[in-house]
């Protein structure tokens, strides 16, 4: 296996034993980006010189015996995380990358401050390669809603990588970065991880700071990693997690040593399989792969129990009230007044209408309209208030079931990667991609997608869902599965191109 | 009010007024970020200098709650006899587009305010009594930026004010005259200053008032058409604007013309109100709970702690001064109008001075000296002379050891220097001479020197008596006890007659 396709755990040992340098790892990623990046459309911004300079600094630190687990590891940030690109005087910072959120309205936008994710990964010694493509404002399940074009799936370039964090999942699958961040509002990490054949995790709401993440739906958004193994996921999550006083919804609970939780054993654990997650319309190949994965865990000593989450059916409707409602307010700041795209019209109202009319894409406009409608006088109680009530119901059901089992097993997505353009004309069909992931956001719980084989040559993901702030259990189950199943070395065709 | 009473024959109308006050809270930093609320001392307040990514609404930023601002609203609620909420209090987003609103929504409170359901006893001297005004709610929100319509066709925005904590206090429609509206405003201002919640300065914009007026036929229990009046820059404007509206409404009602529910602005120069916005243009603000801020649950202990911090309020203090200390209503009013002055007075009395005499000194010479330095912003709590020193001085006057005139001179000096008045009297030899023998010798000397004046006095020109007293005082440098000089001089003059 080429260096660029290995795991952080593997190359980390090589770095610390001085077998490879961070510069070599960075060059390996840059070579893959050079070779496939434009075609896959994975990156929206990158600065090779800045990355190489950081790699050399990391090599110096490694030579000094610095043992931070992510030191010298090249990574990418989803372009929804702001990266500092202006100095205190407001001038361009050399090497500072723009932040677009995949939207025309933020074309060329340079942030005056860094996201918490960037700060933590910098502090952990990571080497930032660039910013990855994503659906505009994280709204989408295929990465086709980016103002900067669709991303191609490294497993089959005629298909989508999933979304909204499709640039990140594809970059990690294509050996362009050892890990990448994503944001998951209704499945935007787990679903593309599933479709791209990598590991992707959405932590508990409040586990990772949202500071510096361009907001889609504040009560649902959560940052998490894409990696090539569950162990890598534990390492990156350890670096990202922790209380941030700048985010009032970030929770002050200690961050355990996630890697220490990876015992490799599920013996004695009770794992629930919610029957509602095997939905009608699910691809048979996906169902078969997930059922087989469950058998693997049973064989490894877990007790598998059938459980029911009867409100699952209402998840989609609930999500499509709450998320657009919050988005309609979150996106009001893009008004062509202070930053970003402005139509430059002298008349205030005309400037609002034209800046937002030209700046936002169709899906973003659709959701702003949905959310505005749901919050309007006369509809608020019937939609927003009702959705919040159902949200409580869904949360309570999860809590009740998770009292009896240690974690839940489910498919991540009902389908494998689909052809680019296949679902763009039917928003509802597109929304169904997230039916198995969005209830987890509604309940604020941690969930991971881990590769569980192929269906028609395309990756399938097994989803593990856990109790709030019990990422350790989710990681333990996923890791045990990964070790037992034999898919850990599964790589996209590009790894041996 | 009895409108058109002069004509008698016309309908009697009752005036209904409700007041909304916005007061900037006295905090060091803004409501949701760390930016200072005021420029550093002696620095000019340049536009857009007290700003950061958060109060500018940059992408990815999040609000965090200013604890002190929450306390000041709760303190105000307690001062206004409100219920202070200890259930989950949510901030809410109030959505509308305007260039002075960086996020496209204002973080405010709506469904459940921090404090509600209180009342305030308002003395209305011009109506010879007091009225009890119901307080609907006092809640917390953030201020908007300041827009200046700088030139033809464009406006400029200063974000220094954006995000400054603002408290909105709303009354029930309990006020029945423009005079009551003014008295309410003034009483509320005094309280806000007393508890340190706000500078409550209308001219400086730290207190802004809106009046809602309607009229209804006397005895009717339904409300008439309501008009909201803004742009009131002083309590006098409030009273005048309300008077103008009452007359305008009465006239329209008499003529049978319909009134429109609208917002009007007060034109101070022209002395009239003009239409700003009609109800048809009213916004649907689409309030919904702010997902970036978890619910606030003020503990009972916190509320109790604040209640204990609540200082004696103006009305209670005035009452105490009149009934317990026997001060005149006038003195009690002057003292309580200024919380620092009242505190100083209390300390002087505490140090042993007789209440009435202390009131004379504090409202007299002490206040005169204070007013001379009012331009420097000097308040009683910044005066160098300790209250105990003033009490000493008053005791010295009472015991006759210093004359009233010299005591004023001593106060003038120690006021700014903070020296002990008794030490100054001692050092400067300003103590009063009460030695009858010495005074007798000085009187003797004056009678010997001014023989012709003595002769004229004895022949009936009694107005020369003052001249002779003055000569004795001159010889004793003003220190002779005036009563003893008087006794001695009269005795000698009468003796020789």
Summarize it.
The complex is a heterodimer of chains A (497) and B (497). Chain A is an alpha/beta fold.
Your description of this structure?
- The complex is a heterodimer of chains A (about 500) and B (about 500).
- The model of chain A has no long low-confidence stretch (mean pLDDT about 95).
- The longest helix of chain A has 24 residues, at about 380-405.
- Chain A is an alpha/beta fold.
- In chain A, helix 5 packs parallel to helix 6.
- Chain A has two domains: about 5-270 and about 480-495, Alpha-Beta Complex (Amidase signature (AS) enzymes); about 315-385, no CATH class.
- Chain A contains 15 helices and eleven strands.
- The termini of chain A are close together.
- In chain A, strand 7, helix 8 and strand 8 (about 305) form a beta-alpha-beta unit.
- Chain A is globular.
- Chain B has three domains: about 5-300, no CATH class; about 310-425, no CATH class; about 435-495, Arc Repressor Mutant, subunit A (Orthogonal Bundle).
- Helix content of chain B is about 40%, strand content about 20%.
- Chain B is built from 15 helices and 14 strands.
- In chain B, strand 5 and strand 6 (about 130-140) form a beta hairpin.
- In chain B, helix 2 (about 180-195) runs antiparallel to helix 3, helix 5 (about 315-325) runs antiparallel to helix 6 (about 330-335) and helix 9 packs antiparallel against helix 10.
- The radius of gyration of chain B is 30 Å and the shape is elongated.
- Chain B starts with 12 loop residues before the first strand and ends with a helix.
- Classes of the chains: A alpha/beta (about 500), B alpha+beta (about 500).
- The interface of A and B includes residues 211 and 331 of A.
């Amino acid at each position: 296996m080429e260096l660029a396709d290995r795991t952080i755990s593997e190359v980390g040992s090589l770095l610390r034993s001085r077998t490879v340098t961070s510069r070599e790892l960075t060059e390996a990623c840059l070579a893959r980006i050079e070779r496939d990046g434009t075609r896959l459309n994975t990156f929206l911004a990158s600065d090779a010189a800045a990355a190489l300079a950081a790699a050399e600094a990391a090599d110096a630190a490694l030579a000094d015996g610095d043992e931070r687990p992510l030191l010298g590891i090249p990574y990418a940030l989803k372009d929804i995380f702001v990266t500092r690109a202006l100095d205190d005087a407001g001038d361009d910072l050399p090497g500072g990358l723009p932040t677009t959120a995949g939207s025309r309205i933020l074309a060329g936008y340079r942030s005056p401050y860094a996201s918490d994710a960037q700060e933590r990964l910098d502090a952990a010694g990571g080497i930032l390669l660039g910013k990855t493509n994503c659906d505009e404002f994280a709204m989408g399940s295929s990465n086709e809603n980016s103002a900067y074009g669709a991303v191609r799936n490294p497993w089959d370039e005629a298909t989508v990588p999933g979304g909204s964090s499709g640039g990140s999942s594809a970059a990690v699958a294509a050996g362009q970065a050892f890990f990448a961040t994503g944001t998951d509002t209704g499945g935007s990490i787990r679903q593309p991880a599933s479709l791209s054949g990598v590991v992707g995790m959405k932590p508990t709401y409040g586990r990772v700071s949202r500071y510096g993440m361009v907001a889609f739906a504040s009560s649902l958004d959560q940052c998490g990693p894409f990696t090539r193994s569950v162990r890598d996921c534990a390492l990156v999550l350890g670096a990202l997690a922790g209380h941030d006083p700048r985010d009032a919804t970030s929770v002050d609970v200690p961050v355990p040593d996630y890697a220490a939780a990876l015992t490799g054993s599920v013996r004695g654990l009770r794992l629930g399989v919610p029957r509602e997650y095997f939905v009608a319309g699910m691809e048979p190949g996906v169902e078969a792969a997930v059922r087989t994965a469950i058998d693997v865990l049973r064989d490894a000593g877990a007790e598998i129990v059938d459980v029911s989450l009867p409100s699952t059916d209402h998840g989609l409707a609930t999500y499509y009230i709450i998320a657009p409602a919050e988005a309609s307010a979150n996106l009001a700041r893009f008004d062509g007044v202070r930053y970003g795209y402005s139509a430059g019209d002298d008349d205030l109202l005309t400037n609002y209408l034209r800046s937002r009319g030209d700046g936002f894409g169709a899906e973003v406009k659709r959701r702003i309209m949905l959310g505005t409608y749901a919050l309007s006088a006369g509809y608020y109680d019937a939609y927003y208030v009702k959705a919040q009530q159902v949200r409580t119901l869904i949360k309570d059901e999860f809590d009740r079931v998770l009292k009896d089992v240690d974690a839940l097993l489910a498919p991540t997505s009902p389908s494998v990667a689909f052809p680019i353009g296949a679902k763009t004309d039917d928003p509802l069909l597109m929304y169904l991609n997230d039916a198995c992931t969005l209830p987890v956001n509604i309940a604020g719980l941690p969930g991971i997608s881990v590769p569980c084989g192929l269906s028609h040559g395309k990756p399938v993901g097994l989803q593990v869902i856990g109790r709030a702030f019990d990422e350790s259990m989710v990681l333990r189950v996923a890791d045990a599965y990964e070790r037992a199943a034999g898919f850990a070395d599964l790589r996209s065709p590009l790894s041996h191109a | 009010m009895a409108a058109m009473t002069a004509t008698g024959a016309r309908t009697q109308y009752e005036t209904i007024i409700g007041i909304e006050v916005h007061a900037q809270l006295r905090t060091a930093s803004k409501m949701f970020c760390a930016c200072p609320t005021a420029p550093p001392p002696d620095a000019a307040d340049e536009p857009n200098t007290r700003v950061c990514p958060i109060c500018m609404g940059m992408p990815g930023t999040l609000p965090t709650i200013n604890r002190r601002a929450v306390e000041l609203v709760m303190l105000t609620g307690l001062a206004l006899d409100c219920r202070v909420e200890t259930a989950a209090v949510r901030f809410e987003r109030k959505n509308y587009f305007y260039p002075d609103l960086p996020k496209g929504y204002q973080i405010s409170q709506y469904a459940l305010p921090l404090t509600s359901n209180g009342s305030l006893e308002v003395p209305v001297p011009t109506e010879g009594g007091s009225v009890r005004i119901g307080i609907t709610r006092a809640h917390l929100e953030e201020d908007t930026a300041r827009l200046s319509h700088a030139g033809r066709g464009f406006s400029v925005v200063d974000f220094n004010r954006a995000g400054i904590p603002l408290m909105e206090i709303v009354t029930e429609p309990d006020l029945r005259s423009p005079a009551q509206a003014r008295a309410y405003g003034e009483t509320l201002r005094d309280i806000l200053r007393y508890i340190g919640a706000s500078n409550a300065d209308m001219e400086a914009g730290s207190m802004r008032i809106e009046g809602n007026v309607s009229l209804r036929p006397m005895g009717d229990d339904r409300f008439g058409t309501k008009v909201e009046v803004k742009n009131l820059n002083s309590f006098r404007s409030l009273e005048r604007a309300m008077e103008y509206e009452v007359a305008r409404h009465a006239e329209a009602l008499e003529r049978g013309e319909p009134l429109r529910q609208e917002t009007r602005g007060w034109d101070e120069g022209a002395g009239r109100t003009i239409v700003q916005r009609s109800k048809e243009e009213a916004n649907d603000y689409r309030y919904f709970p702010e997902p970036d801020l978890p619910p606030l649950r003020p503990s009972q202990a916190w509320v109790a702690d604040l209640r204990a911090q609540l200082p004696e309020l103006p009305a209670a203090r005035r009452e105490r001064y009149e009934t317990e200390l026997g001060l005149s209503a006038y003195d009690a009013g002057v003292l309580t109008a200024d919380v620092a002055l009242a505190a100083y007075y209390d300390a002087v009395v505490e140090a042993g001075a007789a209440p009435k005499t202390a009131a004379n000194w504090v409202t007299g010479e002490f206040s005169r000296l204070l007013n001379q330095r009012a331009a420097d912003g000097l308040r009683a709590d910044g005066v160098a002379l300790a209250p105990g020193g003033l009490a000493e001085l008053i005791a010295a006057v009472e015991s006759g050891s210093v004359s009233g005139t010299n005591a004023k001179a001593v106060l003038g000096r120690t006021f700014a220097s903070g020296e002990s008045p008794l030490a100054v009297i001692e050092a400067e030899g300003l103590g009063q001479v009460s030695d009858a023998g010495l005074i007798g010798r000085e009187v003797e000397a004056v009678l010997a020197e001014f023989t012709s004046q003595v002769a004229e006095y004895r022949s009936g020109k009694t107005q020369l008596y003052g001249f002779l007293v003055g000569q004795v005082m001159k010889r004793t440098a003003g220190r002779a006890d005036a009563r003893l000089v008087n006794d001695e001089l009269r005795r000698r003059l009468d003796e020789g007659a």
